[in-house]
Amino acid sequence: MPLAALWNGKLGKASISSQPVQIPPGSTFANLAGVSCTSVNACTAVGFFADAAHAEHTLAERWNGSSWQIQPSGTTTGEFNAVSCRSATFCVAAGSHGNSAELVGVWNGGSWLFP
Fold this sequence. Notes:
Elements: E1 3-7, E2 16-20, E3 29-39, E4 42-50, E5 56-63, E6 68-70, E7 79-87, E8 90-97, E9 101-107, E10 112-113
Antiparallel strand pairs: 1-2, 3-4, 4-5, 5-6, 7-8, 8-9, 9-10
């Protein structure tokens, strides 16, 4: 199960705590590979999960300041490797379909689009 780390923001008495992330129902494996934050209460993490047939699908999760929630990314096969967010309603993620095909997803505040 993937975990996210939360830093308290202090240099002198720094602490890091593990934060559980959501796993899509029916998945057998999940991994988060990239994260982008626009504030302490708005982060997006991306990666992939494997279904029961071992097919990989994109995974995106949103931090709201207290918990991680899965963002709808449809049933797109492939994996996200990196993400960059300009705001809570605009992120671009990059990844791949297998070994050769490139994958780009755009978050519009409600769903991931794959142009």
